[in-house]
């Protein structure tokens, strides 16, 4: 297992290695992002395959609301970087024990994400068609 480089993102920085971002403030803390925002951590990897594996681990942890137990703060909740590092690395080491199953899960998640996007496009088209029919109907 490669070492994961996790640090707080700064808008001044550019990243050459494969990377993704993790939102660290609000109720969506722990959400993996492909684009940077002001309140996020950056995770850098040696290669794209490794980035992809860890991205889906982060996505699974976020979807299962794993990070909610570790949020601190009274008005705006946030995730501490040290706690994030320790927990993410421990989850990553568990992932390495059954790597073959992890790859199957990642493939299934990718397929589901593609289907979700197809359905989203279909719903958008249906809404547009509904609007067109209503406009035509109301303009007669």
Q: List SSEs in N-to-C order.
A: EEEEHHH
The helix tally amounts to 3
In one word, what is the shape? globular
Radius of gyration in whole Å, from Cα? 19 Å
- Strand order in the sheet with the most strands: 1-4-2-3
- Strand % is 5-15%
| First-last Cα distance | 66 Å
Q: Roughly what is the average pLDDT, rounded to an integer?
A: 90
Secondary-structure-derived class: alpha+beta
Quaternary status: single chain
> What's the domain count?
2
Helix percent reads 40-55%
The major pleated sheet works out as: 4 strands, antiparallel
Report on this structure.
The protein has two domains: 1-97, no CATH class; 100-140. It is built from three helices and four strands, in the order ββββααα. It has helices at 48-63, 81-97, 99-139; strands at residues 5-8, 19-23, 32-33, 40-44. The chain has a four-stranded antiparallel β-sheet with strand order 1-4-2-3, covered by helices on one side. β2 and β3 (32-33) form a beta hairpin. The longest helix is centred in the C-terminal third of the chain and has 41 residues, at 99-139. The chain is globular and about 65 Å long. The model has no long low-confidence stretch (mean pLDDT 90).
